[in-house]
Write a structure and sequence with these properties.
The structure is a single chain. By secondary structure, the protein is an alpha+beta fold. The protein contains one helix and six strands. The chain folds into two domains: about 40 residues; about 60 residues, SH3 type barrels. The protein starts with a helix and ends in a 5-residue tail after the last strand.
Length: about 100
């Protein structure tokens, strides 16, 4: 089999693999690293949002769990991996709107 024929059959496959890596694997890895960074930076007093949409204030932090105050006197224990956003505190100029530290895509 001549070298040109072999290169002609392998080149499209290499392009497909490269495109898959650029469009799927690389962005997923970047999102995972960002989620790990967010989850490891949670500290007591931070307001967070869980994947289920529950907002609360971190009361205490364990190795793999958080105690989250969701209402006065109501504290729940959740897995650290459940945190998807750390919410920035609102100011008087925000007019009560919440912002978070992650970029929506």
């Amino acid at each position: 089999m001549p070298a040109n024929d072999l290169l002609g059959t392998i080149f499209p496959l290499l392009l497909i693999v490269l495109a898959f890596w650029l469009l799927v694997i690389r962005p997923a890895r970047k999102r995972q690293q960002e989620m790990t960074r967010i989850q490891s930076s949670v500290a007591p007093g931070s307001e967070v949002m869980l994947g289920s949409g529950i907002y609360g204030t971190v009361a205490s932090v364990g190795d793999d769990t958080l105690d989250l105050q969701v209402a006065p006197g109501t504290v729940i224990k959740v897995a650290r991996q459940a945190v998807v956003r750390v919410v920035e505190p609102t100011t008087a100029t925000d007019h009560g709107t919440r912002t978070d530290t992650t970029d929506e895509q």
